[in-house]
Specification:
The complex is a heterodimer of chains A (399) and B (355). Chain A contains twelve helices and 13 strands. Chain A is an alpha/beta fold. Chain A has two domains: 4-238, Peroxisomal Thiolase, Chain A, domain 1; 249-396, 3-Layer(aba) Sandwich (Peroxisomal Thiolase, Chain A, domain 1), CATH 3.40.47.10. In chain A, strands 1, 2, 4, 5, 6, 8, 9, 10, 11, 12 and 13 form an eleven-stranded mixed beta sheet that branches. In chain A, strand 12 (378-385) and strand 13 form a beta hairpin. Chain B is of the alpha/beta class. Chain B has two domains: 3-213, 3-Layer(aba) Sandwich (Peroxisomal Thiolase, Chain A, domain 1); 223-351, 3-Layer(aba) Sandwich (Peroxisomal Thiolase, Chain A, domain 1), CATH 3.40.47.10. In chain B, strands 3-2-4-5-1-6-10-9-7-8 form a ten-stranded mixed beta sheet, sandwiched between helices. Classes of the chains: A alpha/beta (399), B alpha/beta (355). The interface between A and B is large, with 65 and 62 residues.
């Protein structure tokens, strides 16, 4: 079966717009989780990883007219998608079939929650009614691109949405339904999400501490990232240098609880195990793990136990980058895939910020300082969603 | 590699968990139609049912019914399409947030609001650790789920899959969608919908679970030969895709008995079907179903369910034919054509497995 390579990546999150700003922030070890500026909520005491641009600034960046109706989720998506297409040298449509797969969870909710009373009671803002659903957000992202996609669809598996989008993209190529798949995810902050996670009492009032014994919860973030996937042959035909390989991936279900993860991390264990099998790798081949590591007591312990079941007492260097960006929910699978790819190609391991004490039941601690000049061959990245939708992807160096 | 539809189950505005719609459909008299709820006690313990929203109950029940009918205990994959997810819980949480100014929020409504709650609730009930995914692409959500399932079979990763479509319609969402032309303004009936003038259709609610397998058994309804998807295609692209779909199965348009369509009474929606029919379908009879099941984001799941039911029964009753024609007998090949707002399109070929 043909090998799937990555030929383009694009990213926007609280730590930066684009690949260079993202790398710079990760190397400097500075969290971008802080006080909410743009989201209109009364819970300003809850910190979050907000992208440092207003909707107006994002529109300007994208050259979108003020009277064009578009949600923030789609604005972020367009920014990341355009960078991914540019790095893949995909500016115009040629004779290939190209698919767009985007993950998102609450669609246009950030606008719906502002205009909801109008939706119900008068005619104002009614154009946004049709932009509420997840699929509409993906169509709005596609509309910003000069050429037509041959397939658009949206995956909504909560916090693993983008990881599952990447998998679907690869499967579309493997089955010959697409030559190129652009896959990722996008999600902006919304009052709905902030209050939802808050109602579950899993938000930390300070910057989160993934894998720390005294971790108290997660910080929400926002952003978008996309990957351009194709076969090595397709990349060669287009004269584009592959960045890395997508060597393995798997999606499994924890089937334990609607929102909590099982104590032994069964879903996570199966996802990682099957991803390794698909890649034809053994656990010792993995040089770095970008963990899901949300900072909630439940996730980190469950993920930790799943990791120990796979890696035994030799858990590779591991960090969660969520203290940098916040948990970007539906986008996180793609944001962390792009971060992993940047680590792979530029040879660094980012720090797991705010760690001080090991979780007692685990046999490993995360990396606390940034490591540069690393020769990383294979990186595993985890994305776990509510409902036990657990997915793992492995990215590998070319050659 | 072959993919078969083993069984299917629905809860909708027709008699639930039943095929009565095939011979004696209830004709909707309102534009806003609620699902008819079955007795859930057979399928879900009352203590569990109390914790589940309506859509989750329907998903668990249709899944259990499809698995039982198909003789499968544990599917290898559960893949769901839903345009709006659990919209009643979403509204409950949203209203609480707006009314209480972001205080005292109900966690259960939030937990049961995410789209993937449906597929994961089915997995949770079955204790199924296999592939689990959820698609939300408007009127192409179920089509996306079916496409994914088909690929998982092609890639040899699964032997069975539950493919589902679930959407509920709340009174508030109905009103909102009415403002952007989703529904007829006046009470519509089959004849008005058939005329296809002006905007809108009638609303429905869809919960459909379909069991797929790569092995034939005595209950198999039909084979799915392939599903082809297109985005914003012109007529010639549809024609080429259709020719490829038919030729790879060794048949021509002459072998197709009828085309199942999403004709709904909405003028712009119907115009696309009529134009494609004129250019690509050689005057073959058109089947419709939204006049009895109503319109919803996952209505296309009924397209596949109805196509499979027609093939297994071998005939098309008069009431499913868009133009008044006599019942069609000896049916063996059905094409299902769906589009959403002329953006996402799909073509699916179903074929009999008998003799």
């Amino acid at each position: 079966m043909s090998e799937i390579v990555v030929t383009g990546i694009g990213i926007i999150s609280a730590i930066g717009n684009g690949l260079e700003q993202t790398v710079d922030s990760l190397l400097r070890g500075k969290s971008a989780v802080g006080t909410i500026r743009y989201l209109q909520t009364k819970h300003k005491e809850i910190p979050a990883g907000e992208v440092p641009y207003s909707d107006e600034q994002l529109r300007k960046m994208l050259d979108i007219a003020p009277d064009c109706n578009i949600t923030r989720t789609s604005l972020l998506g367009q920014v990341a998608l355009k960078e991914a297409l540019k790095t893949a040298q995909l500016t115009e449509k040629q004779s290939f079939k190209i698919a767009l797969i985007a993950g998102n969870t609450v669609g246009g909710m950030e606008k719906s929650e502002q205009y909801y009373h109008h939706f119900l009671n008068d005619e104002e803002y009614k154009e946004y009614i049709g932009l509420h659903d997840c699929g509409a957000c993906t169509e709005m992202i596609a509309n910003g691109i000069a050429f037509d996609f041959d397939l658009t669809t949206t995956i909504s598996t909560a916090c693993s949405s983008a990881a599952n989008s990447i998998m679907l993209g690869a499967d579309l190529i493997k089955t010959g339904r697409a030559d190129i798949a652009v896959a990722g995810g996008t999600e902006c902050l919304s009052k709905f999400h902030l209050n939802g996670f808050n109602s579950l009492m899993i938000l930390d009032n300070e910057v989160c501490k993934p894998f720390d014994k005294n971790r108290r919860g997660l910080n929400l973030g926002e952003g978008a990232a996309f990957l351009v996937l194709e076969t090595a042959e397709s990349a060669a035909r287009r004269g584009v240098q592959p960045i890395c390989r997508l060597s393995g991936y798997a999606n499994r279900c924890d089937a334990f609880h609607q929102t909590a993860s099982s104590p032994n991390g069964e879903g996570a264990f199966l996802a990682m195990k099957n991803a390794l099998e698909a890649a034809g790798l053994t656990p010792t081949d993995i040089d770095y793990i970008n963990a899901h590591g949300t900072g909630t007591p439940n996730n980190d312990e469950s993920e930790g136990h799943a990791l120990m079941r796979i890696f035994g007492d030799k858990v590779p260097p591991i960090s969660s980058t969520k203290a940098f960006t916040g948990h970007t929910t539906s986008a996180s699978g793609a944001i962390e895939a792009v971060i992993s790819i940047l680590c792979l190609t530029r040879g660094f391991i980012p720090a797991n910020l705010n760690f001080s004490e090991k979780i007692e039941s685990l046999n490993f601690s995360p990396v606390t300082e940034v490591h540069t000049n690393q020769n990383l061959r294979h990186i595993l990245t985890n994305s776990f969603g509510f409902g036990g939708n657990d997915s793992s992807c492995i990215f590998s160096k070319i050659g | 590699m072959s993919v078969y539809i083993q069984s299917a189950s629905h809860i909708s505005i027709q008699e639930p968990l039943s095929e009565k719609w095939f011979t004696e459909p209830q004709i909707p008299e309102e534009n806003f139609n609620l699902s008819i709820e079955p007795d859930y006690k057979q399928f879900i313990a009352p203590i569990e049912a109390r914790r589940m929203g309506k859509l989750l109950k329907r998903a668990v029940t249709t899944s259990a019914d499809a698995l039982r009918k198909g003789g499968c205990e544990m599917p290898d994959a559960i893949i769901t399409g839903t345009g709006l997810g659990c919209i009643e819980n979403t509204e409950k949480f949203l209203n609480a947030m707006l009314d209480n100014d972001e205080e005292c929020m109900p966690p259960t409504a939030f937990m049961q609001s995410t789209h993937n709650t449906i597929s994961s609730q089915v997995a949770l009930t079955l204790k199924c650790h296999g592939y689990n995914c959820t698609y939300s692409q408007q009127g192409f959500s179920f089509d996306s789920a079916l496409l994914d399932a088909f690929m998982q079979f092609q890639l040899g990763r699964i032997g069975t899959a539950l493919v589902e479509g679930h959407d509920e319609m709340s009174p508030d969402y109905y009103r909102m969608l009415g403002k952007i032309g989703y529904w007829k303004k006046e009470a519509a009936n089959t004849e008005i919908l058939r005329e296809g003038c002006g905007v809108g259709s009638i609303s429905g609610s869809s919960s459909v679970a379909i069991l797929l397998s790569n092995k034939l058994n005595n209950n198999t309804l039909c084979e799915i030969k392939n599903i082809i998807t297109l985005h914003c295609p012109d007529n010639s692209e549809i024609k080429t895709a259709l020719e490829n779909l038919l030729s790879e199965s060794g048949i021509t348009m002459n072998d197709i008995d009828a085309i199942v369509t999403g004709l709904s009474g909405d003028e712009a929606n119907d115009a696309v079907y009529k134009e494609v029919a004129a250019n690509c379908f050689n005057g073959k009879p058109l089947v419709w179903y939204k006049h009895i099941f109503g319109e919803s984001f996952c209505a296309s799941a009924f397209g596949i369910y109805i196509g499979a039911t027609i093939i297994s029964k071998g005939f098309i009753p008069e009431h499913l034919l868009y133009k008044s024609e006599k019942e069609i007998k000896n049916v063996s090949n059905i094409l299902i054509y769906n589009h959403f707002q002329n953006k996402n399109h799909s073509l699916t070929l179903l074929q009999t497995v008998k003799g």
